[in-house]
């Protein structure tokens, strides 16, 4: 009988202790961010989808069309094509397409790239209603930046 | 048979628990045969999100399978990374620098804390309490920010590489982690006051959902489930890998065999993981984070290799059979939650439905890992 009463009293007290904690936190500053009105800065190492890097000297891409990224990709989402041009050493990039619908953002392509021609972008607001919105022509994106 | 069909002999009916929509990430269906509010029989139905990870492993090169490992148990992805890279390093004979091993332990233990915090929130949510989830997510957010600053991603990490880790940590990470350890230690008494000592939680968990040590052995349950039944088994202690032998930590074991015991094991494990991270930060050696001679195309010699790691849910083992080519001949993944779920059918017989849900929550199920 005494144990029963003791349990009722201690049990009710435990509920008030919990309520006390929630009331205390109620008056503390809000920890959430009102997205999209406020955003947090991205960390420098954030791994978004890939992007071509501009060569500062020539203003063109650093890509040498070796196809290592294409081979390293587990999901086959990169297509690289190039052609030989007269007067230019090596191949010239004509197409660099990323099928982002298949990409799992593992970053193996960036690691495999010897001339460091691709990097991670900081885009994270990626929403679209059509599949085509996720087939990125990275060469065009680089040219649009210039 | 319709949901309320009656048979002549006894008045039982079938109740479908789940599945939710296939687009949600955790879909488990349990077919319950009920006698009123009591469960007569429970049959978990699996395979709704089977993605043939083992077969995918056999069709990709050794390195290309790496991103898959984080997608099985998305809550403790780094331990899965660790299991797979360790077995391939064992097979190919790659030595890992000490600093890289320390970084692996630090990040994997932080990930374990975040996994337990999410389980804590979701478990109380299963029992009908909403607010503890928000407190847990507040703390978990700090871990995600820390891990994002080194790995670059927030959930499905792919940080470990054969022979080391992807990139080094900086001063900000060390300072941030130390601040986080202090913060979580200060908040643990709050969690216990808010949840553990709550009379409603205690009456719903104490002496509910007994899982005996024999049952754990029978079904191969590992992790907090078997430690809540009095079996002292932790891969980190009993089959040490990486640099775990260098740290002083305890394996929490509770003898009560009920849902409360499993709850307490996980809450104590958070504290132990913080201890490991703290010691690792103190002892962190200098040096490279990647082995020097890692071949670009890995071709392990012919043979059969196995490596087990302790994840937040139990022992995860990877067995690879190599035929000397650039893809594995066979890749077998031993997932802890599959064994932990298997005992649910036997354990919940004769229980009330809400008690069975408490038992299921205390198993800490991650469905993508069961189906693989």
Automatic annotation (TrEMBL), chain A:
The entry's keywords: 4Fe-4S, Cell membrane, Iron, Iron-sulfur, Membrane, Metal-binding, NAD, Quinone, Repeat, Translocase, Ubiquinone
Cofactor-binding details, from the entry: Binds 2 [4Fe-4S] clusters per subunit.
Principal cellular location given in the protein's record: membrane
Record GO cellular component, one term: plasma membrane
EC number(s) per entry: 7.1.1.-
HAMAP family attached to this UniProt entry: NDH1_NuoI
The protein's name in its UniProt record: NADH-quinone oxidoreductase subunit I
Organism: Thiovibrio frasassiensis
Gene (name only): nuoI
TrEMBL record, chain B:
Membrane association type: Peripheral membrane protein
Keyword Hydrolase recorded: no
Entry keywords, A to Z: Cell membrane, Membrane, NAD, Quinone, Translocase, Transport, Ubiquinone
GO MF terms held by the record: NAD binding; NADH dehydrogenase (quinone) (non-electrogenic) activity; quinone binding
Main location class: membrane
Function statement: NDH-1 shuttles electrons from NADH, via FMN and iron-sulfur (Fe-S) centers, to quinones in the respiratory chain. The immediate electron acceptor for the enzyme in this species is believed to be ubiquinone. Couples the redox reaction to proton translocation (for every two electrons transferred, four hydrogen ions are translocated across the cytoplasmic membrane), and thus conserves the redox energy in a proton gradient.
Self-association state and partner proteins as the record states: NDH-1 is composed of 14 different subunits. Subunits NuoB, C, D, E, F, and G constitute the peripheral sector of the complex.
Reactions catalysed: a quinone + NADH + 5 H(+)(in) = a quinol + NAD(+) + 4 H(+)(out)
Protein name: NADH-quinone oxidoreductase subunit D
GO cellular component: plasma membrane
HAMAP family xrefs: NDH1_NuoD
Enzyme Commission code: 7.1.1.-
NADH-quinone oxidoreductase subunit D domain: residues covered: 126-295, 298-372
Organism name: Thiovibrio frasassiensis
Top-level EC class as recorded in UniProt: translocase
Family, similarity comment: Belongs to the complex I 49 kDa subunit family.
Keyword Translocase attributed: yes
Localization in the cell: Cell membrane
